[in-house]
């Protein structure tokens, strides 16, 4: 059972894939009408839980809370397809549980099953309107206008109705997806319902995990309705995989527990190349991120003038002072005797370098160690215009751009904002690197088309320095994994998950304003401790 839940939690589907899975279930003999009853029954129960919970929260502090709240008014927004059918079954169930139910349905042509449910609801005396105004006094709205069958931009009257109800500021629970969102890209097709909750049905739809959808999705959860795993496997096996990072996938990739007999070099030797006189803080934060990764040995190459502050901040690290340019950037790498770039288990290069450090980048690219490039490492790479040569590197390369850096690196890939999964996949295929595109829902892709999406994060991370911490952290994980058979994209995904979970915990304890990058580094280990305590 747990195994099923975990497998389902990782799956992300497009509208076409969901449609194909659904078809297999129906072809196998499951009646459409039975599946709709089953799914809508689960939705109705969950809506009652959510609704009662929010009523209890509103009533907190009041002397007594009646276990049987007076029937509340629920508005049901009904579309022409089976999303509308689901909503109408929910309407009927809530009506029988004692709620006052009002239906809004502006469509005259409905799918047959949806039409039958509407007819029955009418026969029960539920009022049905083709304008939205009568629903204005409802305490709760259920959005069943469109699900994964939405195929074009919304037009009036439904578009205006959605705009109007979004103004009402009422709790809205969307069935499957907020109506108006593109199932695959999360793009708003004209307009979309701003839900407080989204109950995604069966499997996670890709659109719900996109930055541009997040203003509309609210709190999202999955309603599992027992889709056979075999059907999912058959439909997904021939397309590139897109997966959700889960706690289980992330924890299974961490270098824990350590073997009882080991030594520091066996636990990875990471070289960080970072910092300049102008940006010394970036080097410190990258170092602190790497420290939290648990890496066995940490060397940090910085301009000579940063050496003493780095030693003070990271006494355990070997700080390598390098000759610097007039502007205070690393002019040339000067590694200790008997070391060269190929002797490190991984190299992470970029934070705070400034573009004046450009001469060192080719040297780093020529090394045969796994390499992560971030920040100015990426900017210099973009200026060099040699992104195609990454394919020729003898070891993996990881690029961790934010959208601005992504556009500089891959100017010919359009829509990095609108089609993040597609853009990241294209960038990885083009460069041969593992590409991590930062965002509220960070996307990681490898050159074979495998994609991971980080499903949780916090806007608290929108702050200078948090990217430097990520670079150090992933660098440290790459170094520790260098002798293990874990794919690079999984390590990178784990780093992204860990970083955002630390920020979520920090934001819970300190508010979203309290998560400066230095504080974040202190939560990296704290979040692992609290996660393993919750196991
Ligand atoms: N996948 C599954 O296994 C299940 C799906 N169910 C529900 O079925 C939904 C999918 O049902 P459908 O395929 O009927 O799709 P929808 O209910 O999303 O709507 C499709 C209908 O809307 C019309 N339409 C599309 N775009 C429009 C636009 N811009 N303006 C006006 N009309 C438009 C289409 O012509 C079609 O009639 C899911 O989202 C879910 O709610 C559940 O009933 C049960 C199980
Ligand atoms: K919907």
TrEMBL record:
Binds 1 potassium ion per subunit. GO terms for molecular function: ADP-dependent NAD(P)H-hydrate dehydratase activity; ATP binding; metal ion binding; NAD(P)HX epimerase activity. It catalyses: (6R)-NADPHX = (6S)-NADPHX; (6R)-NADHX = (6S)-NADHX; (6S)-NADHX + ADP = AMP + phosphate + NADH + H(+); (6S)-NADPHX + ADP = AMP + phosphate + NADPH + H(+). GO terms for biological process: metabolite repair; nicotinamide nucleotide metabolic process. Residues 247-531 form the YjeF C-terminal domain. Keywords: ATP-binding, Isomerase, Lyase, Metal-binding, Multifunctional enzyme, NAD, NADP, Nucleotide-binding, Potassium. Residues 18-233 form the YjeF N-terminal domain. Its EC number is 4.2.1.136, 5.1.99.6. PROSITE patterns: YJEF_C_2, YJEF_C_3, YJEF_N. (6S)-NADPHX binds at residues 82-86, 147-153, 176, 352, 402, 468. K(+) binds at residues 83, 143, 179. Pfam families: Carb_kinase, YjeF_N. AMP binds at residues 438-442, 467. HAMAP family: NADHX_dehydratase (MF_01965), NADHX_epimerase (MF_01966). Bifunctional enzyme that catalyzes the epimerization of the S- and R-forms of NAD(P)HX and the dehydration of the S-form of NAD(P)HX at the expense of ADP, which is converted to AMP. This allows the repair of both epimers of NAD(P)HX, a damaged form of NAD(P)H that is a result of enzymatic or heat-dependent hydration. In the N-terminal section; belongs to the NnrE/AIBP family. Belongs to the NnrE/AIBP family. Homotetramer. This is Bifunctional NAD(P)H-hydrate repair enzyme.
């Amino acid at each position: 059972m747990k195994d099923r839940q975990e497998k389902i939690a990782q799956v992300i589907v497009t509208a076409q894939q969901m449609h194909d899975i659904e078809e297999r279930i129906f072809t196998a003999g499951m009646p459409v009408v039975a599946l709709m009853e089953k799914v809508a029954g689960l939705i109705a129960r969950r809506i009652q839980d959510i609704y009662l919970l929010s009523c209890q929260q509103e009533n907190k502090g009041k002397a007594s809370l009646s276990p049987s709240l007076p029937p509340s008014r629920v508005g049901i927004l009904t579309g022409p397809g089976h999303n509308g059918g689901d909503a109408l079954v929910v309407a009927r169930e809530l009506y029988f549980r004692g709620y006052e139910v009002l239906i809004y349905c502006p469509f005259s042509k409905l799918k047959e099953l949806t039409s039958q449910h509407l007819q029955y609801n009418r026969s029960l005396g539920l009022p049905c309107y083709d304008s939205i105004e009568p629903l204005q006094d409802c305490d709760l709205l259920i959005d069943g206008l469109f699900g994964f069958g939405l195929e074009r931009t919304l037009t009036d009257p439904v578009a205006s109705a959605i705009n109007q109800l979004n103004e009402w500021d009422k709790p809205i629970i969307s069935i499957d997806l907020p109506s108006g969102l593109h199932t695959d890209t999360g793009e708003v097709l004209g307009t979309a319902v701003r839900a407080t909750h989204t109950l995604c049905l069966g499997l996670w739809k890709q659109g719900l995990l996109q930055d541009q959808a997040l203003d509309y999705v609210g709190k999202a959860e999955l309603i599992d309705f027992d889709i056979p795993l075999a059907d999912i496997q058959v439909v997904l096996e021939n397309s590139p995989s897109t997966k959700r990072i889960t706690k289980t996938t992330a924890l299974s990739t961490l270098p824990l527990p350590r073997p009882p007999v080991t030594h520091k070099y066996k636990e990875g030797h990471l070289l960080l190349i970072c910092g300049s006189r102008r940006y010394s803080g970036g080097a410190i934060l990258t170092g602190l991120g790497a420290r939290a990764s648990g890496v066995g040995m940490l060397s940090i190459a910085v301009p000579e003038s940063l050496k003493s502050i780095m030693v003070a901040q990271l006494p355990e690290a070997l700080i390598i002072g390098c000759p610097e340019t007039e502007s205070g950037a690393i002019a040339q790498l000067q590694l200790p005797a008997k070391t060269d770039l190929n002797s490190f288990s991984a190299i992470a290069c970029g934070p705070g370098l400034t573009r004046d450090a450009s001469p060192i980048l080719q040297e780093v690219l020529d090394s045969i160690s796994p390499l992560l490039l971030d920040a100015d490492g990426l900017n210099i790479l973009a200026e060099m215009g040699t992104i195609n040569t990454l394919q020729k590197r003898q070891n993996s390369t990881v690029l961790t751009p934010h959208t601005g850096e992504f556009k500089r690196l891959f100017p010919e890939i359009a829509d990095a904002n609108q089609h993040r999964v597609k853009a990241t996949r294209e960038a990885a295929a083009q460069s041969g690197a593992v590409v991590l595109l930062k965002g509220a829902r960070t996307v990681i892709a490898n050159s074979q088309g495998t994609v991971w999406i980080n499903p949780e994060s916090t806007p608290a991370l929108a702050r200078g320095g948090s990217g430097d911490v990520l670079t150090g952290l992933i660098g440290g994980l790459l170094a520790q994994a260098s002798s293990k058979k874990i794919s690079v994209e999984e390590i990178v995904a784990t780093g992204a998950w860990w970083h955002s979970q630390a920020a979520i915990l920090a934001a819970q304890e300190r508010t979203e304003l309290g998560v400066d990058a230095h504080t974040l580094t202190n939560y990296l280990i704290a979040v692992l401790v609290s996660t393993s305590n919750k196991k």
